[in-house]
Every structure is written in C-alpha cells, then in structure tokens.
C-alpha cells in the first residue's frame, strides 16, 4: 500500500484542567498522525480523552481552566501550539473543520441557517457576498439538503435532527478544508439517518480527498468508515492499528473488552453481553502503571507499578500492554473473544 503524506502530527500531547479539587490529567502523552485522504477513528468510552484530544488541535478547550503540559501539534509542519490567536483563526473552519456532537446545541438558534454557513467567510476579501451565498447553497445541495433556498432562510428549530447534522457538516465543509474532525456526529440520530450521514462523509472524502478524524464509541461506525483506529483509555492511547488488525488481531485487554460488549447478529437472543467490570481511573491522580490494570482480568503486579512499554506488532499495529512482554503469560485475546461470543 502506498504511504500517504502526513497532514497532521501530534507528539507527546498532554492537556489538563485546573479545578478546585486539583488538576485533571485529561490527555497524557498522546502521539499519532493523520494522513492525507484517510479516515482515522478514535474510539473509547466516555471520559477517555477522545474529544479533548481533538479539540486541542484547534485550541477549542478553554484556557484557563485548561492548559497544555507539553507536546506539539504539527499541521503541515507548523506547530499550532506556538501560533497566535489570529493565526489559529485562519485555520479554524477554513483548513480544519469541526462537526460537533450535538447539532441542537452547536447551532445558534437566533441565526438563519444560511448566515451560519457563511460565517466561515467573515473577514475574507477574496470572495464577494454573491459568491459566498452561491458557495453556501452549493454545499447545502452537496450534503443532501433539499429545497436549499427555503432552508437557507430557516432557523435551526425548523429543521429535523438529521437535517441539522447535515447543516453542521455543510459548515465544516464549505471552505473545502483539508481535515474534518467529527465528534460523534451520529450519536443523537436514528440508525437510518446515521447510515445516510456516514455514506455522505465517505462520498465527500472521495470527492474532495478530505482527511477525517472520526471520534466515536460505536465500533460499528469504526468498521464502516475508518482506515486506521486509535483506542484510548484513561487519557492515553492503549492500541492502534488498521481496522482489520484492531478487530481481528486484538492486542489489548481493553480493546478485547469493547469487542466482547458488542451484540453480533449470530448470537442467541438469551446470551448476556459481557460488560467491562469496574470504573475508569481517577484522572485527578492517574495510576502509576497501566490505566486499565484495575479492570483487567490479566493484570500482573508490574501492570500496577509501571506504565507498559510500547510493542510494535506490525507496521501499523502497536499496543501498550505488558502481556506482550516475553516473560508474560501467553494470552490470545482474539481467540478468547471468539470463544466467549
């Protein structure tokens, strides 16, 4: 497979929030890259650091109370963390689009749809008012919004949930950015509309060659949409690889637990799904060792004492788990999942 050019690179990113009770270590030493034209999935349960990590890319987390403890975010070779607000504003919406989780609260209820789509062009002198409206109507048609002239004049409360989400995608796409970050864009939609939105994102990727970061806790979305996957837990990356490797060559107990909690079509209706017992780690005081150790059935003494080393299993497949050490017990997580399902 031909190696794609890297568009965005995140190196050793750490981001925390100051509170009255102390600092919440929301993102801890996270590193990954996004390549041109690919769909990268970030999966994990609520509170694992998915959204905070991606909001760091555009500096959307409030600072304060949030603050960067270290790291770099390199977009086309430039470190976003060293940019001034004026420089970041040129990137937001224009070069990197963001589709937020809930369109009900992300759209301004007092502004017409057309005006919200056109906001991306505010302050630009290279396009006329007529061209801006034409671009807005064109992108509305592209994302499957019907009767665009009417929708252009309407307010958010006059649209359905699925139509609002299409407007959010239109806002993210109107300036044809090189990267779109989608933060669980189908969470509040029914399955029919969800399928349409996913198909739409794939079509837009093919049409514009846009890179996509898909944040989700839905492994079905990951399987349908993504090329590569990052699994996060407790503010850290615990496994990464291609979709096939993550699903069929699972190498981390947490990823295995996610797989076991999915209902497949061939299981008996009386089968009880196996949840991941326990609760996520306290990020006010993160554990010294593996963040998943307290919930892991395979945890060893070293798992509680030291952060796992990174083990490269293939060119793309990497895991942070002591089970991969040469002295650890041999555990086939993929086989274990197959036997239990």
SSE layout and pairing:
Layout: E1 6-19, E2 22-35, E3 39-43, H1 50-57, E4 66-75, E5 78-79, H2 85-91, E6 96-99, H3 103-106, H4 113-118, H5 129-142, H6 148-153, H7 161-173, E7 179-183, H8 191-208, E8 211-216, H9 219-225, E9 228-233, E10 236-242, H10 243-248, H11 253-260, H12 301-305, E11 310-312, E12 318-320, H13 333-340
Parallel strand pairs: 3-8, 3-9, 6-7, 7-8
Antiparallel strand pairs: 1-2, 1-4, 4-5, 9-10, 10-12, 11-12
Helix pairs in contact: 5-7, 11-13
Q: What does this 3D model show about the protein?
A:
This protein has 341 residues and is of the alpha/beta class. Helices cover 32% and strands 23% of the residues. It has an 8-stranded mixed sheet, with helices on both faces. The protein has a 4-stranded antiparallel sheet with strand order 2-1-4-5, with helices on one face. Helix 8 (191-208) links the parallel strand 7 (179-183) and strand 8. The relative contact order is 0.13.
Shape: globular
Radius of gyration over C-alpha positions, nearest whole angstrom: 21 Å
State the order of secondary-structure elements, H for helix, E for strand.
Answer: EEEHEEHEHHHHHEHEHEEHHHEEH
Supply the number of helical segments. Answer: 13
Mean pLDDT: 86
**Regions with little confidence, pLDDT below 50 for 5+ residues:** 335-341
Side-by-side strand order of the widest sheet: 6-7-8-3-9-10-12-11
Work out the strand percent. Answer: 15-25%
Summarize the structure.
By secondary structure, the chain is of the alpha/beta class. The protein has helices spanning 50-57, 85-91, 103-106, 113-118, 129-142, 148-153, 161-173, 191-208, 219-225, 243-248, 253-260, 301-305, 333-340; strands spanning 6-19, 22-35, 39-43, 66-75, 78-79, 96-99, 179-183, 211-216, 228-233, 236-242, 310-312, 318-320. Strands 6-7-8-3-9-10-12-11 form an eight-stranded mixed beta sheet, with helices on both faces.
